[in-house]
Amino acid sequence: MNLLYKLNLRTSSIMKLSLHKYKKLLVNLKEAIAGTEQDFTSGSMRRAIFLLSVPMVLEMIMEAIFAVVDIFFVARLGADAIATVGITESLITIVYAIAVGLSMATTAIVSRRIGEKDKKRAGRAAFQSIITGIFVSLLIAIPGIFFAKDLLILMGASENMYSHMSGYTTIMLGGNVVIMLLFIINAIFRSAGDAAISMRILIIANSLNIILDPILIFGLGPIPAMGVTGAAIATNIGRGLAVLYQFYLLFNGKKRVQLAMSNLKIHFATIRKLIKLSLGGIGQHLIATSSWILLVRIISVFGSEALAGYTIAIRVIIFSLLPAWGISNAAATLVGQNLGANQPQRAAKSVWSVSKVNIIYMGITGLIIFFIPETILLLFTTDPIIISSGILSLRIISIGFIFYGLGMVMVQALNGAGDTVTPTWINFFSFWVVEIPMAYFLSIELNVGETGVYYSIIIAETFLAVAAVWFFRLGKWKLKQV
User: How far is Cα 54 from Cα 36, in angstroms, rounded to an integer?
Assistant: First the structure.
């Protein structure tokens, strides 16, 4: 009886402990989604990662939905329409590269000021980031509007694509300012420890895009069918209204980083520091994204169907990778705030903890994509040739998902510390020295076809992960001043 009593008592204790953990999880989940500004320089590391990662993952999923929703509806228009979107997105990746680079610099500076408890300088840095983003976007928009057709021709588009579908490219490049500001301002909110705001902003943008896409692409009542051009208009309206909401929160919200009249001044010293940091971030992403443009160019040699299959497959992969980027962004914020609070060891510990989470996520996601690629692709198209090409792409690229996840966290940790130069060199060697030459050699010289391109991606990303871990373990990032 005594043994039975002890067993019941132990079972009861375990149940109470489990219930307590469950309630605590729900409380943290509610707080992560509802949004709250947090100081991550003290307290539980697991809780800090959870509160940052959940909204950041959801934010990245929202960003991925833009690409998936567009391709879902555009796929009904045929292979040329899909390929037009694919080529345009490969060009837009340059915009993403600059936006992400500026976001990295913004995160490094603003999170460091938050860690130092200097809200005034955090607000000043935020405004300089926004001004810089607007200026850069104009430099891209003007040539993008006037030379959209020429860019499509340069990228190997068919006559039907550049003659009848260039409107999509014109609008996407011309309206790139909404992409730029969406990234930069969301980075400001994340740096302050309130990642849930960024998530909610993208929910608004996506909701509008989902509603407008079918209406503008296929027409409804008095609204004419605009085809693939309608997808570009819908996306820009959704993102544009989200940016207006961002500005409302910055000027009228009660957040840790606010824009007041005292902030609305050009501060060249801050801009110089921002540009210096962002050049590394922009450089590393330009290197990475320009390599994707060249991969698209290589694959276009094998026809529209192969390019369409690759385009859909890449959208699926981006959708699966962006949550991992969200988790990785948590490492950048944690590193920045903890270095600002003079706690480099806590910063390092947070990075290894985030790495474990990302590796588990990417491992599970890679297995799912590897085993059911056809089921996923059937959501977008029923063309057997496109599906066949897409299956090949998904199965090969998903093999390296674990390395992708580890590399993301390490690179973002270095960026969060303000060391954007080291990841730039890592990207250069990974993508320009390894990936591009290997892709061309395997696919064209050895006549392996698009399969050679996919294997080159795995090898390059694995090299990147190993190199990033090595540099992170050196620890020089702990001494970086921003």
Answer: 13
Q: Which two tokens stand for residue 364?
A: 């599970």
Between 345 and 61, the higher pLDDT residue: 345
CB neighbour burial string for 344-365, b if at least 16 within 10 angstroms, e if fewer: bebbbebbebbbebbbebbeeb
Phi first, then psi, for residue 220 (nearest 5°) are: -155, 115
CA distances from 140 to 173, 324, 326, 400, 409 (A): 7, 28, 26, 33, 29
Q: Among 42-46, 355-359, 460-464, which stretch is predicted with the lowest mean pLDDT? A: 42-46
Tokens 């909401």 identify what position? 245
**Predicted local confidence at residue 216, as pLDDT:** 93
Separation of alpha carbons 300 and 156, rounded Å:
7
Nearest to 227 by CA among 178, 179, 171: 171
Exposed, middle or buried by CB within 10 Å (0-12, 13-18, 19+), for 22? exposed
- Are the C-beta atoms of residues 146 and 81 closer than 8 Å to each other? no
Taking the C-alpha atoms of residue 475 and residue 271, their distance in angstroms, rounded to an integer, is 27
DSSP secondary structure letters along 73-93: HHGGG-HHHHHHHHHHHHHHH
Beta bridge partners of 220: 223
pTM: 0.70
Q: In sequence order, what are the beta bridge partners of 356? A: none
> For residues 91 and 407, which has the higher predicted lDDT (pLDDT)?
407
DSSP code at position 415: H
Residue 223 pairs with which residues in a beta bridge?
A: 220
pLDDT value of residue 25 = 58
- Token pair 């996919």 is found at 454
d(CA 100, CA 282): 7
173 band by pLDDT with thresholds 50, 70 and 90:
very high
Q: Other CB atoms closer than 10 Å to residue 12's CB: what's the count?
A: 10
Q: How many CA atoms lie within 13 A of 378 on its CB side?
A: 4
